[in-house]
Design a protein that fits this description.
With 422 residues, this protein is an alpha/beta fold. The chain contains 16 helices and twelve strands.
Amino acid sequence: MTAWTWMIYVATHSNVAGWGEKSIQNIKAAELGDSVQVVIQQTTPEGTKRLHVKNGETAESDMGNEVDSGDADTLIDFAKWGKEVAPADKYALVLWSHGSGWEPGEIQGIKLQKTVAEPVTVEELSERSAADGRYNIFFTPSMREIIEQEDSFERDIAFDNGTGHSLDTVELGKGLKRIKRSLKQPVDLLGMNACLMATVELVYQVKGSANVYVASEELMPAESWPYTEILTKLGKKPSMGSVELGKLIVDEYTEFFKNLDVDLTERGIDGATLTAVKIDGIEQLATATTALADGLMADMAGHLNAVWSAHRNTIQFQNNHQSYHLYDLGMFCSNLAQSEEISADVKTAAESVVAILNDDAFILAEAHTAAADDGIMGLTTYLMQPVGNNELSQFYNRTEYAQVTGWDGFLQAYFEAVEDAE
């Protein structure tokens, strides 16, 4: 039996289809050896195909142009097929696509052409996305739930505040549970070749369904993962486990972008970042953030200045529309722990979060190429600033992380405290 099978789901019904094709060519160029195989499903505006890369040869089959890569059933069917044609001891599943939410400029433009009685349709948005690449969400159910909100205010909140990210987190968690049942084992490594997906919310949602999670806090450059180098090294050492592989991916990714002769700042990206996480440690982190949320809510007014100062001085990762409001959790807690205006309980909880994120048994590897990102610890969290017309996502509390930790309650208390202080 093959030691490793990589399943790479290239959902590029968008303007990055060409970059997805380049990744596939890089995969084909890898020296896999006898113990590593790769199965790929690639969707573009022209249609969908499947590829099976083995021993230097590629078998390809056409699936036509009716495949919805945003349907979780499609992803699950791909995983089943991958196991059938390339059974293995260990599996890596990589999602290659846009990631983490909406770019509201496009959606708002579509919405303005519609009445409240006639919501934007999934089909219309999908067709437009093929041309302009703003189909920044993995799963159709997430899109449908947002764009069919009858109340225009609720739709505005969804579009502007990254609700798509929260809903997609839930859909991905459901899909991974089904894939685990299909494989009869957790996915050994779950990778996100997509923007902004290294969030505590996502790690918590997939716990139990995968062992190691690899994703970026930052926008991901279109060059994506250096598949040739990663897969060739795995081919030479197929005995490596998921922890070692996760570290390898981060190392190769960082080295690739350090040596790439491209100015990423011209694309609105400070640099390339990537994190590998041992997922079973997320429970301990959730316990610490629960204590932090409880301590802050016990006296939100008294902690407001400290929270606001820590928040403002924490690095934010987001798209050009500044709609996702994802902040580095470790930096926020480190800033908070240094404040003289917090209670002993809050200080202890904040320090606990930092200690867990500094534990290399949990954060297996974190690397970034931008000096501006020094101080980040590998995972972001939803942490919107209570300023201007910002409104908290009404869907965030559907994530398991928000439900377990009370982070949604902390955010609401934070907003209310700012409103009371004005």
